[in-house]
Amino acid sequence: MGFFNFAPSFRGGTHPPGKKSATVSRQVKPIPLPSTLYLPLNQHAGAMAEPVVKKGESVVRGQLLAEPAGEISAALHSPAGGEIKKITPHLTPCGQRVPTIVLSVDPKNTETNFYQPYENLQKITPRQIKERVKQAGIVGLGGGAFPTSVKLSPPADKPIHTVILNGCECESFLTSDHRMMVERPDQIIQGLQLLIRAVEAERGIIGVENNKPDAIKILKQKLANNDRITVQAVRAKYPQGVENMLIYALTGKKISAREYPVDKGFLVNNVSTAAAVSEAVFQGKPLIERIITLSGPGLKKPGNFLVPLGTSFKELISHCEPDEDFSLVLAGGAMMGTSQADLSAPTVKATGGVVVLDSRYLQTTDEHPCIRCGRCVTGCPQQLVPTKLTRLIKSHRFSEAKQLHVDSCLECGVCSYVCPSSIPLVHWLRVGKNREINE
Amino acid sequence: MDLTAVISMAIMGVLFAAGLALAHQKLKLEEDDRIEQVDELLPGADCGACGYAGCEAMARALVDGEVVPQKCPVADDATYQKIADLLNLSSDSSSSDLVARVLCRGGKEEAKQLAAYRGINTCAAANLVNTGGKACTYGCLGLADCVAACKFDALEMNDNGLPVVNDDNCTGCNACVIACPRDIIELHEREQKLFVWCLSEDDPATSRKSCTVACIGCGICAKLCDGVEMKEPNLAVVSETNAPDCDQGVEKCPTDAIDYK
């Protein structure tokens, strides 16, 4: 990456400090099993899963705990052997109390119950892959948590020609996908091959930001003799990892805010999701753990960890020697992460990292009047006008804000980040998005 | 002296004036002067509670016979009568007299605070940031969106961080109900005195930890009192407007969640 950065990208965006150096070279280590796991039933977009176990029941690692309820939903499996203590509302990283399976872990119960692994890629049918992805409860691990099986079954009139793997990881502090690409490139490539096969696509592209030259090099080496899959570097810019931005950078095709990638024949998945698909097919392993980054100035020993789903944030942080005065805990990266009111919230399928900040980050700058510099307008990847939308929302003119497409806001936070007047633009936009209008 | 300019200006002036006078006669818009009269009778707050853009729009609708005067939740009976007399309407439909009730008594002293919220200083914004700081995800956030929405000076925040309704000023216009992101303000009949002052559906253990005045769903009041029933497994509600006084239920409630106004 030189002074002239010609790697393809999208219009808008910004360059928040990466802050990745603390964890980028730290190998993924497993975290010891905690004594209690909290498994919310809504770790995915769509309908809440329905529990198939009862209080007091003994379960083993990999056993089905809850099955999908409805078309858009996902299964949930036990990350460890133990006993179901209760099913009760518990706080999630989103700040809601939702029905949660509380599992008391028994370290002596080491039995596992995985699905039957497939052996040969060439002999698996697309249907078998889709079926397995659904069984294993795999969802988009980039943060959206949309059930992958739904994505793999596009409408008949919209065939998929290109499967894209998202290795951008444009969020500050997070390095889990980067480590995944460096440490498990074969799994990612296998996963991509499975995804291509499942939707009968023509080709696959792995898009990686050009601030990860080591990952690009390794993946390119592994794919030297593969003519269907290419690795492409894209410019390191936030939010490069958004589906529509990545498709534009890689192929030049524009997906409008009203369309989904499938409307133009694309399927985008995170590299971690591809690895999970590979594990589900070739090892029979359901989605019961994930790799996350624990980082931030509030932690003395940051790193990347393989974490059983359901581990509470308190437990996670205790493994990284937190400062005494740590003050702000974010589930996710520094740009889009949600701040936590209570550290009893557990790691869920969508948690890509936990960022712990110290008290310096609590000093808020006073908000000043808008000086109409237009930085939020040029920065907005969805080409919205955050300053105007904010003015409308502040004065309760919600229907006008809706007409100006406030609902297309990705909540990426670029507008707030670039605003020289420290106006919390993205927060106002969220207020506008969440306001129901009765008309 | 050259008078051309003066004369031509004068001629043009006369011509334009004649044109305007003609237009005033020919294009005159006949407007019912009752609209103005009704508009003057209406409260004039332009609160929009009737569903129209303001009092003038409501007045037009009234004159056109689209709505009845009682559609304005703000005006009193005398006003309904005056409007009805003016428009020769029968005024038999009596108005329901609703006032706002804030169904949360978990203020700073009673409700547990998990974290400090530092962001945009409105409830609508705080409600989007995790739990908004409070342990209870149902309770009042205390940032006074309802007070800002009230056009009649009927709500104010007390020292405990809870909004208090001034019944004399409340017109039941519904603005605070819409403004509250947690839906804890409801409109109830003015006479109703007995309420369960909590809307938390959390399980008893969580409720007890979150707030000292939360309804824990023990069901004692539902057993002892007429007109009180369990709305959710963990939440009782006074379901009848004319529920009789129930001193026993109020006394036995372990968390004082059910009480008179």
Description:
The complex is a heterodimer of chains A (439) and B (261). Chain A is 25% helix and 20% strand. Chain A is of the alpha/beta class and 439 residues long. In chain A, the strands form 4 sheets. Chain A has a 6-stranded mixed sheet with strand order 1-14-13-17-15-16. Chain A has a 4-stranded antiparallel sheet with strand order 2-8-7-4, with no helix packed on it. In chain A, strands 11-10-9-12 form a 4-stranded parallel sheet, with helices on both faces. Chain A is globular and about 65 Å long. In chain B, helix 2 packs across helix 3. Chain B is elongated. Chains A and B meet through strand 7, strand 16 and helix 13 of A and loops of B.
Please outline the helices and strands.
The complex is a heterodimer of chains A (439) and B (261).
Chain A: E1 29-30, E2 36-40, E3 50-51, E4 58-59, E5 64-67, E6 76-77, E7 82-91, E8 97-105, H1 126-135, H2 148-151, E9 162-167, H3 176-183, H4 185-199, E10 203-209, H5 213-222, E11 229-234, H6 243-251, E12 266-270, H7 271-282, E13 289-295, E14 303-308, H8 313-318, E15 326-331, E16 338-339, E17 353-358, H9 375-379, H10 386-394, H11 398-403, H12 414-418, H13 425-434
Helix pairs in contact in A: 1-4, 3-5, 4-7, 10-13
Chain B: H1 4-26, H2 33-41, H3 55-63, H4 77-86, E1 98-102, H5 123-126, H6 145-149, E2 155-157, E3 163-165, H7 175-179, E4 185-189, E5 194-196, H8 204-210, H9 220-224, E6 228-232, E7 235-238, H10 247-252, E8 258-260
Antiparallel strand pairs in B: 1-4, 2-3, 5-8, 6-7
